[in-house]
Structure formats: structure tokens, C-alpha cells
Amino acid sequence: MELGFLIGSVVKIGAILAYLYGLLWVLGHKKLWVKIVGVVAAFAIVQLAFTITIGDSTILNEFDSGLVFQAASMTMIALGLNLIYGFNGQFSLGQWGFYGIGAYTAADITFRWINGDSRGLLVVGIGSILGAVMILGIQKWLSRLRGVPVLSAFTFYLFGSVLVGAVAVVIGNALNPAISPLLGSAYEPGPLSQGIWLQIVYFLAIIFAGVFAGEVSFLFGLPVLSLGSDYFGIATLGFTIIVNTLMLNSDTILPFPEMKGGRGMIGIPKLTTWFWAFFFMLMVIIIMRNVIHSSTGRTILAVREDETAAKAMGIDLASTKLLTFVIGSFFAGIGGGVYAHYIGFLSPGTFDFLAGFNPLIIVVFGGLGSMTGTIAASFGWIFFLEGLLRVLLGQMGPDAPTWRFVLYPIVLLLLMLIRPQGLLGTVEWGFLKAPFVRPRENQHTASDVVEG
Amino acid sequence: MRAFKVFGLLMVVVMVLSACAPAAAPAAGGAAAGGEIKIAILAPLSGPVPTFGLSTKEGATLAVKEWNDKGGVLGKKIVAIVEDSQCTPDPAVNAANKVINQDKVKYIVGEVCSKASIPVSEIANEKKVVQISGTSTNPSVVRDAAGKVKPFTFVACFNDDTQGKVIAKFAKENIKAKTAFIMLDQANDYVKGLAEYFEKYFTADGGTIVGKETYTSKDTDFSTVLAKIAEAKPDVVVLPDYYNIVNLVTKQAKEKGITAPFIGGDGWDSPDLDPKAADGGFFTNHYSPTEDREKVKTFVKNYGEAYKNDKGEPKTPDALAALAYDATNILIEAISKAGEDDATKVADTIAKGKFEAVSGSITFDEFHTPIKPVTVIAVKDGKVTFNSQVMP
Amino acid sequence: MLLDVKNLNVYYGAIHALQGISFHIEEGEIVSLIGANGAGKSTTLRTISGILRPRSGSVHFKGEDITTTPAEQIVRRGISHVPEGRKIFAPLTVRENLEMGAYTRDDPDEIQKSMDRVFVSFPRLKERLNQLGGTLSGGEQQMLATGRGMMSKPSLILLDEPSMGLSPILVEEIFNIIKEINSQGTSILLVEQNALMALSISNRAYVLETGRIVLEGNADDIKNNPQVKSAYLGI
Amino acid sequence: MQNTLVEQNSPPVDLKPRMSLAWVGKAFLIALSLLIVYLLGTNLAKNPSLFANIILSGLQMGFVYAMIALGYTMVYGIVKLINFAHGDVFMVGAFVSYYLVYRFNFQNWPALFFPDMPPMVVVVIGTISVIIIAMIVCVLLATTIERVAYKPLRNAPRIAALITAIGVSFFLEFFGALNFVFSPRFIPYTRPFEVVAWYIDGSGIHSIVAGTQPPANAITFSNIFLIIMIVSILVQIFLQFLVKQTKMGIAMRAVSYDKPTARLMGINVDQVISFTFAIGAAFAGLGGVLYAIAYSSINTQMGILPGLKAFVAAVLGGIGSIPGAFVGALIMGQAEALTMGFISTPMRDAVAFAILIIVLLVRPTGIFGEPENEKA
């Protein structure tokens, strides 16, 4: 029976990787109807596996489905990081912070909504839209002036954001009384806080959470992206820590008593279904693929390969980096929203900076500059660490689970020593295959020491 | 392609691991003759507080072992499945999902930390699995967002309210304190809860809080806070945190010449509490290993026989071990009383029953939280001794 | 024979940079390697000094096989490589740069003697002794690089493009000093784009073309070779 | 590197007079710093002795950070690797000394061999030998890590080495947390000697008698503080000497600037790199022991946060620069202590990082950092 468990887990990992491969292949198919049918089928296969019962449990039980949801949100986060680091070369440790921002924002919107308070949605929604308008407007205005230093530009954006935030709160408060009667309360849900309306709010919450994370990343990235790569990395690590600190004090320093600070936010509706997880994951994959395959994508790659040369070609380094950073953070925010509504409980401990290395490990594992690698590694990583190792060590007596985090770094070390460029290097499959993407294999540090 | 080599390597790792698996398997699930009852123990074996996980695991497995030695329950052998839940929501949820869906477990002991117990409790109630946590004091563990009790979740410890009240009462009556200084960790719900309730009852009784300072759990240098305490000169300093923080704070306080006694909660309880540093302090607890009750004596003896510390001496069980032991015993006893391996019946039995446990005689209130006396323990002359028992 | 290079093959990835090069240097000689950009001159020097590994072939120095000896060991054997582009340690002072040149030696008195000898050749370095390497002018940097190369008391100096980027007067000065170093008994392998200048101080020369030696012989003969004249000397 | 969006978006020819808005950013920064100065100033005026006590506690943290930061800054300077395992080497140093003192009572060895030795000397020699053994173990550990985990990746992408560094760090923490290794407990540390504390008030220096409270307006400090301060400054002086005056030190700088050319000088680059790791580890071990003595509680995760802070301090001071690491660490210590004292304890890390980010914006390579050199 124990061996059965083991084989079952290994087969599951294999099946999921094969499934992802199939999905990418179908998406890459030339005919539109094949794509559509393929995507629907890909959705249906997993959906069926969640529902069809064999023996006394479904083919993929809730343990597996939990892992699938975690892997799906991890895919979005890791893809965002791969865009920032793998494709654009900006070493960021801030992804985890944006993930946290997305999770808390989305959770707060739906939590308030089902508790008869529409201000979450209104304020964040209006704020994100106005914020985008403000950013574009100030950008336009500043572009007419010359020689405005980053710090000054940042000051303008900062004051702009504060203003936009205040306006959003005012509008939100004004509109709230009109909507909240339709929401009812947690005990008696009104017409708008259930059924299809709740699904729409969920969708909006996640999109707004992503946009909000993107806007924060714009504000933060604007000054910080001008730093050199490692310094940028440290500054973004600082960002993750600052976000974590704010989460811990969300009920004291920040005015969000429902987030309950270090106690953790409870009562988030568990709205993430396979449909939504699949939908958002696919959306992120498609957006990212299309960004990379566009001319913007070529600019992004050019900046990574050689900043000086890119600048000489007339590429606007700062805006390219900023754009990549914002898109990457948007993905992280989406991932956070999906995660929050899967787990139903948010605690600042989840967004600790140490866990923030996980997406980095996944991206490097899969191969920098390989979307396929990132997707496969996200699933592989969760299913290995939380699935296989947990099941295996669980079989080996009460002391064994302690070894989980001893084995994990050993595997990590071995893999890095054997394949420093990541599992898939820069290989892409199916849909993601791109003729012009030929990223360099090795980035030498010790300039040209040939034999070590 | 080189990628395949790596996959090959992964497979080899997996094979090696699987080679280990059958060897250890009989220990885990051997005698299936009379059937077996599985109990999952979720403990933070890694993560921020692995030491709590260790005590919990030891206490819970000791209880399981004792029942098995007596022939199991309902004629069936009890199998303990230990899972690492890291005191963090994600792994805890994965662990709970795994034991419920993969191992088909109907009873869960744990988690230790509230932030892990809360998401586990949601799954447990959804899946109608009995969960009993030894030590999660956050009210959200047993109550849902709307404030209703979760039918399948229990805790074996008194809650923050009770303990805060007793600390305040003791400070007022026994220490004769009029002014108090509160030190608390904003991010720790346990500490925050105790501090809040202490403040509530202490001020209601006419005491004054002369200062309130926060720190974080990762701090090691408390001299800034202590400098403020030295300025404020309170009658008592309330420090309702875990022993590791207590060790740091009290030691540094002695070096700063602070003479006010420190007082805290059950988090102080640990064989690693430095009694020299904490000398003159008091803390409330679920039980004292030096108590005279028969139940306590046998537990301390059995635990010491089963587990040794790094010098090879018998270990003294801390409150976490005792509570995990109690939680497991309550659970198994309830199974036995219910007479049936059925989660709903067992949950019912626990809610209504009365249990003789190491931490006193326990009945559960409407929020599945035990009603039991609180023990106050004094740290004096390098020793941790039973001081008094206070009914809240 | 001081240095004997036999049938050297070096690859950069798939590029066959040196295609079976053989040459030798006798004690006390100045030998020039001349050739166009990318002919493999610097590659040859880098292979001799151990920075690059040949795929096949051998390098013998004073009769010993040093083909696979690591670079840092080769210095101890008595070969000093003054790299192309000077490669001064910019954040180190002139004195520290020179001390690094004598890294393989331990006796402080002997090192001081060598340093004094360098100062005789390059009095300008003595004036700049505590200045940072990076703040020197191009000519001074070349002097420092050459002086640094002398500090290990080598029996063979590999000089890579000592005239690169220098004014004609400085080039003249540098080449005079090279001759002077040689006259003190150090053999020199000189790689130069400025073929005329190089040939004027060399005993013998080899002409490289896309990784092969196409011509070898007496410096004067080479200078007068019509092909060389048109291709490299611009006469 | 200070690119601005605006500069780049602007049309290449712009005949209009430039309107400089640089003052906006500057005014923002100045307003921010004025706020901080005001906050600190009022607190100083309100209670000078509390202020001084807080400054002292910040100094103690700063000096400990300085010892760890050195390892980060030197290793980064030479191989451009953020050696995340450094904080765990620090932890191992503390544990080694714990076992020596607690298990083997090693600090008393001089008394066993030389019974006539005065106890004061016994303690000093014993403690120093405990520290030295801890340092040696750390050196061995760090060089092994370097050999096994970093050296094979020297020509691989830099990120691979960073990931292995994270892996090594995880491994040390979780392997150390196994029951038969260090165990996951928070262990009360047994000090090899007693801590003596003093206070200064208007009437001079007095030692604190147990059970009595020093008067108000007194500034307290302990022998641990003095030891940490002196050791940290000595380490600093020693390293300055090493790097500026010795052959090995100059070679380290040469290697960090240009490895291939350093090899041409006959410098064994691998040896120099190993030596750098060893030096850093030795001081991390030293820091670990002093830290454990000062705060007297150890566990396997104790290295994470001081390690991170020390690294931030190194970046703040200009990574690669040894005096920079020192100054950065002291600033870091003060930033933390002052934030804890006068702003808000939970915001401590946030403030520390905010300072880092602001400093980097003004000086992109840190306070003492040289502009990134363009290598040929």
C-alpha cells in the first residue's frame, strides 16, 4: 500500500507535467478551433478528475486539488518574476510582496462585499482606474519637461497617488449607501452578494488586486529601478519586508481592522474554483507570451542582453524596465487574489521574506527565460515538496517529516550543481516557442576565466 | 538531452527514497488485524517554532503509545500520523488535506499555532473531522467569522480571557501591584490577546498601566524597551510571551538593574526557561510538573522515561507536551466513550463529557473551550515551583 | 631552447582559433608575432601563460612540459605575461601593482631590488608610487604593466601590444625600454600590430594569419618580404 | 545610471529653456530628514538619559552586525555572491561555543592545568580559547561550503550560486534543527563568565548591585558591551591592516578587481577566494560567540535576521568596502534602536530598509562604495 502511495504520487507529477505539455501544444496549434476545443478539454479533464469518484474518493482528491490551486497561483507569481528577472534581467526579490498585496487586496474586497460593505470594491476599483489615469497623465506632462530627476518625478507620482486615494475613498463612501442595502449581511446575503454577482465581484476583485499591485510596483519601481542589479535586488527584498511589516500592523498602523494584523484574516469566501484558477493561469500565460512575442518583448530582451547597446539603439531603458516590472507585479497580484480565495485565511506569516525566495528558486529551477520551465517548475516544485515528500516521509514514521526540509535543500543543491542553467534552460514548448528568442546560456561572472 | 539526465537523477532520488519506505513501513502501519484508528498529529516540526512541534509530537505520541499498550481503543490499534505543518497556513492546509483525503483520517490533533489551526479547522468542519488543538488560544479557532461555534473543533487549553484575568488577579492580590508595565509582541496573537485581557481586568480593578511597549518575536536586544521600563519604575512587568523571549528579556532586565517582578502566561513554561534570569517572576500555567496529583506524577514519569534530553537525562514535559497529551487522551477517551469510530458522535461526546486530564479536570463550554482551574507557578531561587491554583 | 611550442590547437567553443602553431624562442632573443586582428596572436600568448587550455599540442619551457600547468604556476617557472590592454589593477596603488607583480617571490630585499630596477627603466613610476593605478595616463599604465611584468624576475616576458593606444613618442620610449630589458638577459615574445616597430627590435619573427603561421624567419628577412611589406608594413 | 523617464521620452531637440524640477525631489528628501531630526531632537530634549541608553543599545547591535557584515562585504567584493549561508555560519559559531562551555566546561581548562592561575586570567584565557575553537570550526565549515557548493559554479550563471547559497542556508538551519544535531530549541546559553553592569550618573561610574535599581537619569552599560565594542574595533583595524598592508590582502583586492590578470601575476585565485571565505567565517564565528554571550539565547534560526541586517548594512556602507560595512552596521544599529525607542517597534525593519533604499537612491553604490568600474 505504501508503494502504491509512492507510485501514485510520482505518476501524478508525471501526469501533470504531461498535461501541461499537452496544454501548451494545443495552444500552439495553428487552427483556432483546435485551440478552443483543446482549452475546453484541458479544463474539463481536470474538472472531471476533481468530480468523478472511484472507490471512496475522487481521482484527484482535495489534497491534490489544493496542490493544484497552489501551483496555479505559484505559476502566475513565478511567470511574473521570470518576466522581470529572466527576460528583462532585473533581479527582483519583491515579487512576494506584490503577491501579498494582491492577496490582501482581493480578499478585502470580497470579504467586505459579503459582509454588506461595498466600499472595498468601490475604493480599490475607482482608485486603480484613477491611479492608472493619474500615472499616464503625469507621465505625459513630465515628458514635455526635460531634466526632471527620478526623485522629483517620484514625488509627483506620490502626491498624485495620495490625492487619487483620497478621492477614491470619498467617492466610495458616497456610493456605498446606495449599494450596500443590496448586499445584505453575512447572515442574510442580499441579491448582489451571492450567485453570479458574487462571481463577477470575485473576478473584479482579482483584476483590481492585480492592477493595484501593478500600480504600487510602478511607484516603487520608478526610483528603485535606476539602481544596479544587485542593489535593486536588495531594495526589492526591503519592499517585501516593508509590506510584511505593514500586514502585521494592518489593524494598528493601517486602518483595516478586518485584516486583524498578525492574527490573520479569517472569513474570506473560498471562491477559487478550478475554472477560475485555470482561467487566470491561462490568461497570465497568454498575456505574457504575447508580450514577449511583440516588439515590446524584443525591447525587453534587448535590455537584458546589453543595456548600453539597447540605449544606443534608442530604447528607453527606464520605461522598458518599469513596464516589465509593472506587468510582472500585476501577475503576482492576480496570483495572490487566486490564492487568497483558495485558502480562505491570510496570515502575514505566509508572506514572510524567507518564503519569498521560493518563486526565485522556481524560476531558476525551470530555467531563466523559459516560460515552459517556469510553469513546469511551479507545478513540479509544489508537487515534489508538498506532495511527494510529504507523502513519502509521512510513511516513514513520526520522526521522518522533520527531514523534509533537510532533503529539500540537498535536492536543490544537487540540481543547481548539475544543471546551473535550470532544468529546461531556455527551451520553450508548443505555444510558447518563439523563433527569435535565443537568450544566452551562461552569464559569466569571472569574466573569462576558462578553466576553474 | 541533458534535461533527461536530470529527470533521471530525480527518478534515482525517488527510487532511493522509495527503497527506504518499505523498511520503515511496518512501524507505521503494521498490525491491521483488529483494524486500526488513525489519528493525525499536525505539528510544526519545521518553520518558526519547531520546538513547539517537538513537544506536541512527543506528548501526543506518548498518549497514543499508552493507549496502544493498554490494547488500543474499541479493540483497534491507534496509528499516529505525524505531519509537518510548519505553523504556517499553506503547509498546514496541505497536511490537513493530505491526512483527511489520502490517509482517511477522522481525528486530528493540532496544530499548535492559531494561524495554522484556523485554516485547518475550516477544512475539518467542512469534512466533518474532529480536530482538537492543545494550544491554539485564538478564539477564531473555535468560532467562525460570524461568531458561531465550529462543531468539530475543540481546544484543550483555557483561552486568553481566562488567563489574562488570572494574571491580573494574581498581580493585584498576591504581588500587591498598583502599577504595571506591559510588554507585547504586536504580531503574536497569543501575546496580544493576553496583554489585552490583562489590561482590561487590571484597570477594571483599579490598577494603572504606566507603559506599554511592543517588540517583535525576532528581537534579541530589548535594551530600548528596558530603558523605558527603568524610567517608568512599575510594580510589575507583564510579559505574556514564550520562554525564549522571556529568557532574553529577564536576563537583560537583571543586567539593567530592573527589580520589578515579571509575570506572564503559559508560554513561559519550558525546560529551557532560564530560572536564574526569571528569578522572582510568576506565570500562569495549565499544570505544574511538581504538582502532587497522581495524574501529573505518572505523566511526568512516563514522559521522562520515553524522552531524554541532550544530556541523556529524562525530559520534563512542558505545557505544550502536557496539552498535546491531554488533547490526544480526550480524543481517544471520547472515541472509547462514544463506542463507535464515528466523528460526529465523538465530537458530541467531547462537547458533553468530563475528562480527567493532566491539566486538571476538564469540561467544555459552549465555545468548545475547557473550563478548568489555572495554576500559578513561581520562579524562585533557580527553581520553578507550584505556587497556587486560581479559579477564574 | 627556452620556449618550444609544438602544434598548438586552441578552440573558442566551435571556433578553431589556433590551427597547429609551432614556434620556438631561444635564450636572450626578442621574437615577434605579427599578424592582422584576429590572427590568433593574443590567443597564442594566453595559451602559453595558461589562461587558455589548448585542445592539443604542447608548450615546453626550459625543457619542461607546461601545457597543462595552471597560470599561477607558470609565473613561478619564469614566464611573465603583460596582457593586452595593460590590465592594471585600477584600485591598487602603483606600488601595490608592482608588489603584485612580485607575488610569487618572498624575499623583501630581492623584491626591493627588482623594484629599483623597474624605477631605473621607468623613473616616472617612482614619482607616482602612491597614486592609484586607475589614475595613471595610458603611457604610464603601459609602463606600469611592463614594470609589473618584470617584477617576477622572469626569464621570458610575453608582451601583448605594448604600443596600443600610445603616442609615437611614447611608443619609441617603450620599445627602447624593451630592448634594454632584453639586453639584461630576459627573452621577449612580442605581439604587435605595429609590425615595423616590432621587427626593428626583434631577432626573429613569425607571421600569423587566421590561426596559422604563414611565414617565419629573421626579422630583417621578414621586413623585406614583399608580401609582408604590402600586407603589414604598408610600404 | 540615473536615467529618468523624462529625459528619455523627450524629443532629441528641444530649444525651449529647460525647466529644472530637481528641487522637488530634493525638497521631499529634505522635508523627510527634517522630520526625523525634529523627532529625535525633541526626544533628546525630553529625556537625555533614555536617549543615551537607546544610543548605547544601538551601538551594541551595530558592532555585532559589523562583525557579520565584514564577511558579506568581502565575499561579495571578491566573487559577487550574496552568501546567504553566512548568517548560518554565525549560528554555528554560537552553537560550537555553547557546546564547549555547557557540555565540556572548556572555558575552565587553564584551571585544570595551572591550578594556581588567578580566576580572572583563567576566564580570559578560557573564553579566548573557546572563541578561537569556534572560529576554527566556522572557518572549516565555510571553506567546505565554498568548495562543495560555490566553487563548481564559479563559471555558471551567478544566480545558480545564489540559489545554492540559499540551499546551503536552508540546509544548515534545518539540519541543525534535527534532534540529534543542535535540536530546534531556543537554548539558554551558558556564559563562560559573568556579566557585570555599570551605570553612570552625575556622581561617576558605579557597578549595579543585583536587586537594586540604578537611579533615574543613569546610563547603564555592561562588560559585554565593552568587549563587543573593543573586539569589533580591533577586528576592523586588523582587517584594514590585512587588506592594505599584507600581500594576501593586496592579492584579495587584485583578485576582486580582475581575476584573469591576477592569475597572470601568479596569484592562486581559488586560494585567495577560499581565504576570503575563511576570514569572513572566522569573524562571523567570533560574532556568533559574542552575540550568544550578550543575548544568551541561541537556536538554529538565530542567524537569519542578524545575517540579513548585516548584509543590508554592508550594502548601505557600500558593498565591497570594509570601512563601509562598519559604518553601515553602526547606522543600521542606530536606525533600529532609535526606531524602536521613538517611532514604533514593529516598523523597525521597515524603517531600516527605507533608510537603505533612500541612501541607495542618493548614492547608488552605498556610502563608501566606489562607482561600479567598467571592466575591459
From TrEMBL, chain B:
It holds the Pfam family Peripla_BP_6. It comes from the Bacteria. CDD domains: PBP1_ABC_LivK_ligand_binding-like. GO terms for biological process: amino acid transport. The keyword Transport applies. Residues 1-23 form the signal peptide. Keywords: Amino-acid transport, Signal, Transport. InterPro entries: BCAA_transport, Leu-bd, Leu_Ile_Val-bd, Peripla_BP_I. Residues 36-382 form the Leucine-binding protein domain. Belongs to the leucine-binding protein family. This is Branched-chain amino acid ABC transporter substrate-binding protein.
UniProtKB/TrEMBL annotation, chain C:
InterPro entries: AAA+_ATPase, ABC_branched_ATPase_LivF/BraG, ABC_transporter-like_ATP-bd, BCAA_Transport_ATP-bd_LivF, P-loop_NTPase. One of its GO terms (molecular function) is ATP binding. It holds the Pfam family ABC_tran. One of its GO terms (biological process) is L-amino acid transport. Signal peptide: none annotated. The keyword Cell membrane does not apply. The keyword Nucleotide-binding applies. SMART domains: AAA. This is Amino acid ABC transporter ATPase.
